[in-house]
Design goal:
seven-stranded mixed sheet; alpha+beta; 198 residues
């Protein structure tokens, strides 16, 4: 990364998967870019370098909009709800460029596209307490249920469907698939749910 000449506020622009993917895989704790339809917004500095990326898209829970509409007593639908799936920035941190300003700019763009609600999740298992969401005026809306995931011998996490798909392909039981793959079931703590009306 080239050094900064000035600390001018970066410009926001929609970026491609080809640009966003490697950045997310380098700077997001998950190391993974979500699949499916996504909208990637990038904060580009005056040296044409990406400072941060926000990835918005459809979440994995097909009942999310229905749940939020009921909990918030608001007209949340699948068409006006979008999930903030990834948010990351490069190092070193620039104090003059708070991520809350970046999210504010993203939300203005999303509002122009017809979205009215943003949902996201902070994961205490990875040391996240939702500070960025508090700073960005999201409302805390409880926690998700704890989930079961799979851990390999090197401590890497895999989605629970990983062993299930293997079992289906090989015609073995789920327990046999986990044993063959060297995976152990691990219960992860609930995530905090954050929602913002835009």
């Amino acid at each position: 990364i080239r050094p900064q000449k000035e600390k001018e506020m970066p410009e926001i622009t929609e970026v491609s998967l080809q640009l966003a993917g490697p950045f997310i895989e380098q700077w997001h704790y998950s190391g993974k870019t979500p699949t499916g339809k996504n909208i990637f917004w990038g904060w580009i500095d005056n040296m044409d370098c990406i400072y941060s990326i926000a990835d918005y898209g459809i979440g994995v829970n097909p009942y999310q909009a229905e749940f939020l509409a009921r909990e918030m007593n608001q007209p949340v639908t699948k068409d006006n709800l979008i999930e903030l799936k990834r948010l990351c920035r490069r190092e070193p941190r620039v104090e003059e460029w708070p991520l809350s300003s970046f999210l504010s700019k993203c939300h203005k763009q999303l509002s122009n596209l017809g979205f009215r609600y943003v949902v996201s999740f902070s994961d205490p298992a990875h040391g996240h307490n939702g500070g960025i969401y508090k700073a960005s005026s999201f409302d805390h809306l409880g926690q998700t249920q704890a989930e079961w995931h799979l851990e390999d011998v090197d401590g890497g996490f895999h989605h629970r469907r990983y062993a299930y798909r293997y079992a289906q392909r090989k015609g073995v039981t789920l327990a046999e698939a986990r044993k063959i793959l060297g995976l152990t079931r691990v219960k992860t703590p609930p995530k905090d749910r954050w929602v913002k009306q835009i």
